[in-house]
Amino acid sequence: MEMMEDVVIVGAGIAGLATAVALKRGCGVREIRRAKSHRGYVTNVSAGDVQQVHFRMANNGGDGQGIRTVHRKVLLEALAEELPVDSIQFSSKLAVIESEEQGGASIVVIHLEDGTTIKSTVLIGCDGVNSVVARWLGLVKIGGGAYLGILTGLAEPVHSGRSAVRGLAVFSQGHGFKQEVHQFVDAGKRAGFVPLNDRELYWFLTYNGDNMPGDPEQIQKQVLEKYAEKFPSSYLDVVRHADLSTLTWASLKFRQPWGIIFGKLSKGNVTVAGDAMHPMTPDLGQGGGSSLEDTVVLGRHIGNSFINNGGLIVPGDMAKAIDDYVKERRWRAAFLVTGSYLAGWVQLGGDKWWVKFLRDGIFYKYLFGRISGLVHKDCGKLPAMSFGDMDHSGKKD
Fold first, then answer.
1. Is the CB of residue 22 less than 8 Å from the CB of residue 393?
2. Which domains does the chain have, with CATH numbers?
3. How confident is the model over 159-193, as pLDDT tens digits?
4. Over the range 219-250, which residues count as b (16 or more CB within 10 Å of their CB) and which as e?
5. Which pTM was predicted?
6. What sign does the dihedral 317-323-324-329 (CA atoms) show?
7. Within 10 A of 338 (CB to CB), how many other CB atoms are there?
8. Which of the chain's termini has less CB crowding within 10 Å, N or C?
C-alpha cells in the first residue's frame, strides 16, 4: 500500500503529539490540572541536614509559573484528544527512509515494516533517543538510492555513566504530603518525589552506574534494599507504594552539546524534535518541557511558511522554515543538555569534601531554587492558521 501525506511525524510521545496538534490546529490543548510547587527540601542522607529551597518564579514572579508537575499519561491523552482519530497510526515500525525527486521537488519516502510506503513533503522525527530519523540525517547518499553507512553529521547519543529508576506511587487513601518537592542525596545517589495529586506521587532514583534487573519487582527490591536503604522512611514508603506497571529503569544517554550546535539537525524538509534532537539527562526535569518548546518553534516557522504561500506547501520555503527552526533551537537545546548534565554531575559527584561543598554550599543554597526561572522560555505564539485548514495532513507513529 502506498500513501501520500503533506507532513509525517514519526513518534507519538510528547514531542510527536504536540507537533501534530500545533500543525493541525495552531493552538494549545485543553486546560489540564497541573500541580504547582513553590518550595522544596533537600536532605543530605549521610549528615542528616535538611535544606529548604524556595523556587524562584519565572519573570520574577510575574506569571507565577514555578515548578509544575503533570501526569505524563494525562498530557498525552490531552494532546491525542485534540487530533482526529485517523491522524494517528499505531503499531507501525519505520524500516527505511529514502529521498527522491518528484515534479522538480525532493520528497521523502518512508517504508514501514508492514510493507506500507508513505511519501511526504515534510518528515519530522520525534522518535526518541534512538531516533531512526536522526540517524538518517547523518548518512550521505552516494547515488543509485544507496547511502554511505557512516555517520557524518550528527553524532550518536552517548552514555552519561548514570542510570535512573522512575515510577508512580499510589496511595488509595491519600498520601498526606503537601505540594512540595522532596529530594535526598548521598554519595553517587539522588532520589526524590513530588505529588501529582492527592493520591499519586512521581518518584525517582538516579545513581552512578549501569546495573539493575529488568523485572519491576526486582527493581523495587534493589531500590529499597541496596540503593536507598539508608534513605528516610518517607521516601522508602513512597517506593513501597509504587505501581509496578509504571516502574522503569534506564541507562541515561545524552547528545553532546557540540553535536547539537554543529551537527546536522535537518536535511531539506526533514528534521527532528524532542529527544530525537537533544536527549538529555533528567537532572533539570526539562525533557518534556524542551520538547514542547520545539513544538511551538517548529509550528511557528512551518505555519508562517504555509500562510505566506497562500495555504500551500512550497518545498523550498518549507526547507528554509525548517532550517530557521533548527537555528533557533540549537543553542537553547545545547544549553539545556549542558545544564542538565552539570546539575547531575554536581549532585552525584561523590563524597569528597569539595564535591559536598559545591553541592550543598553552592548548588543547593544558591542555584537550585533559581532553576525554575532559568529554564523558562518564551517561544512565541503559533500562527492563527495552520495545516488544520488543509484537506489532508499526516501524523504517523
1. no
2. 2-33+70-157+255-347+385-389 (3.50.50.60), 164-251 (3.30.9.30)
3. 999 999 999 999 999 999 999 999 999 989 999 99
4. bbebbbeebbeebbeebbebbebbeeebbebe
5. 0.88
6. positive
7. 16
8. N
